[in-house]
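Much of our argument rests on the idea that a fold can be written as discrete symbols. Part of our work consisted of pairing the sequence of a single chain with a tokenised description of its backbone. The amino acid sequence and the backbone structure tokens for this protein are reproduced below.
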Amino acid sequence: MEKRRMQRFFEQNGGLLLQQQLGSLAASGVAFKIFSEERRRRDQQGHGWLASPRRGSSAAEATASSTGAPSPTYGSTVAVKRSRVVEEKQLREEFSREMLIFSQINHKNVVKLLGCCLEVQVPMLVYEYSANILLDGELTAKVSDFGASRLAPAADEAEVATLVQGTCGYLYPEYLLTCQLSSKSDVYSFAVVLLELLTGRKAFCPPPDRAAGSESDQDDDDDRSLAFFFLTAAHKGRHRELDDAAELVMQCLSMAGEERPTMKEVADRLAGMRSRASSELRL
């Protein structure tokens, strides 16, 4: 009975199609794995899968230190995510195609999708773990979470979303009220991240879970990592960079979208700050 139930979930979540497509890519060296539910349970009991959960807008995320076999990535820490809401049938059918695309993305600045478990009602995804939304343990910038991504509208246009998606604290306030996206929406979200870097504090801090005390310690470590670059600048007396960055943040966080700079302007100004700092170091 249990095996039949898991097989039904596997097929329902597009497992057969994904399995077939991955087989055709075996020669290209794609390392994506489909983990069985039995394997997941065994690893969860022995190595902490789904420990210390952290929630996003459409998924519950957890970290697991995989220090012994069997584990998704032997000797490493992984992030395990699963949706909180069962998607519609049409979206489930697209799941395998999306996994196939993500499995082939291999870039140092993109969080690697290592595999998935489909023998459950809600699929689970296994990623390499990045300490926070910007940097891994070696301070390499990482990008992840494309599930809510959409093509950006033209600069003078707005797009109406049917469902508000995103993480509290990072969303453009008017988007929460009107569901309207514009080219300036991401400018606000980026500014929140930059503000985290400047202050060493997170944009949204829910009350700590006393049952997961170790997670608060991890959050403290993440905060220190976020502030690393700007604190270094302050210690070296380079307050101009901090002032310039703070001014840029305030402009990007303007409640009036038309008063915010474009992302290109933001990138140009940040590049200018870096260039000036590099020139001063060479003097």
User: Anything to note?
Assistant: The longest helix spans residues 263-282. The domain at 148-283 is CATH 1.10.510.10 (Transferase(Phosphotransferase); domain 1). The chain has two domains: 1-134, 148-283.
